[in-house]
Amino acid sequence: MKTSLRPAALPALTLSVLTLALSACGDRDGDAAAGPATPPEASRTLADELGEGRATLGRVVESSGLATVLDGVGPYTVLAPTDAAFGQGGADLTEAGMRAQAAALLRAHMLPGAVTREDILAAIDSGGGQASMRNMGGGVVTFTRDGDAIVAAGPDGVSARLTDEEEPTGNGVIQPIDGLLIAPEPS
Amino acid sequence: MTCKTVLTSVLTAVLAASAPALALDPGGNGNGKGRDGDRAEARGDRGGGPDRSDERGRGRDRDRDQARPQPVARFQPDDDRGRGRDEAPGQARRNDDRREDRPVRPQARPDDRREDRRLSEAARSPERLVFRSAPGLIDGCPPGLAKRDNGCLPPGQARRIEAERRMERERWENLWRWPAYGGDRYRYRYDDGYLYRMSQQGGLLGYLPVLGGALAPQQIWPDRYDWDPAPAYYSRYYGLPDDYAYRYADGVLYGVDPDTQRIAQVAALLTGQPWTVGQPMPVGYDVYNVPYDYRARYVDSPQALYRYSDGYVYQVDPTTRLVQAVIELLT
């Protein structure tokens, strides 16, 4: 079934949208829900930042084979678990035989584009208390508020809080979190 | 943003949003559901078709394209006809100049960068990759493994080693319960580069090579594992070296040596979400995520939302949530 817009309808539609735009001119400028942010220094990449100060996650990145992706154009947002968040499981994922698991875990913690906390909060507020974002592993991460904090939950409901400060880079954003969004089974 | 700029943008948006609706025909090839049906049918054909495991190289790829129905709409501009699937514009491989896997550093885009291109202006050759809804499962067992009721087992000593490692791997089985893999409808077991899909009763249903395993850099592309050629747009957007051909499979863009079939690099991760003009925005894009370099140009407003996915920015109607325009970020 074609849903094409009929050419004859274009002038009317154009006029109506222009009218809408004119009526909004007085109060819209500078009042967008999301807007410009200061571009970060382009020389530092996600791979650069994740490789410094995050011993476990840095090794997981190397093990996964995704360092080139995180050093590339992107952009991606990485929900970056702290070293403590990995616990014993972090050591598993840095072993040679676990490269596929390392890659899968990383994909579950990556989002498309540059996602800032300001934008997450705005989406939560406009979305009735929650906002969802696709991850790079085929699932969805759901964001909610807990007081002043932002909580991220993975597809299975395993959640973690955004912690510390976000770190914009030349090819994305790092959002530190205090837990994993996919929990290992108890051993 | 000034009022004048807003008006200009709105006028542009209206014209642009209408043109792709005319050109891209969301009810035809642009309909993801229809394509899925075609793909499912094509996959069924392949599953019962001849084993192509003895095919090699680009000749193999040409044969494949000619021998089977085209399961998905592919990037096929006029000047690209007759190429093998691994040959695309901008991807010409230089002989004797093969580079090692190398990172592609993000380039700061100057203020006077080229204008982004709405696909309405490029409708004659829309370089859009149409994603499969699910990874292509392969029937049977990988070479060298024997099929058993509960999976594909390695022989002899490898089986003992497998038993020793199983406990460790099972700790992370949750990783494979992705919606793209069927969620809880199936059980999965990872072993030595492959993911095995099992029924809830334990019967083997097929296997899948995965990123970091059989689809890791330096691995030979697995026989019978299907892929889609990446549009040349991705080579330009991601600034990929032209030494390799680029293949898309299961959310990953791989750089592959077309002669040896060896994976040279993991070039990018993609969501694989179908964005079609005139269709609803996919689920999972509630948060504004436009790249920094483009935030000044594509600002959410009561008239339009902008979302980034897989190298494009999409303009969305805030009320209906229908995709209005697809915007290339390079020309």
UniProtKB/TrEMBL annotation, chain A:
Signal found in the keyword field = yes
A Pfam family matched by this chain, by name? Answer: Fasciclin
Q: Which residues form the signal peptide?
A: 1-26
Q: Which UniProt keywords apply?
A: Signal
Report the SMART domains cross-referenced here. FAS1
- ATP-binding as UniProt keyword: no
Q: Which domain of life is it from?
A: Bacteria
Give all residue intervals belonging to the FAS1 domain: 41-181
Give the InterPro entries listed for this entry.
FAS1_dom_sf, FAS1_domain
Q: Tell me the protein's name.
A: Fasciclin domain-containing protein
- Give the species this sequence originates from: Peiella sedimenti
TrEMBL record, chain B:
Q: What is this protein called?
A: Uncharacterized protein
**Which keywords appear in this protein's UniProt record, sorted alphabetically?**
Signal
Origin organism of this chain? Peiella sedimenti
> Highest taxon of the source?
Bacteria
Where are the compositionally biased (Basic and acidic residues) regions? 33-67, 76-130
Per the record's keyword annotation, is Signal included, yes or no? yes
Leader sequence range is 1-23
**Region annotation (Disordered) ranges:** 18-135
Taxonomically, what lineage is the organism?
Bacteria, Pseudomonadati, Pseudomonadota, Alphaproteobacteria, Caulobacterales
Indicate whether Signal appears among the record's keywords.
yes
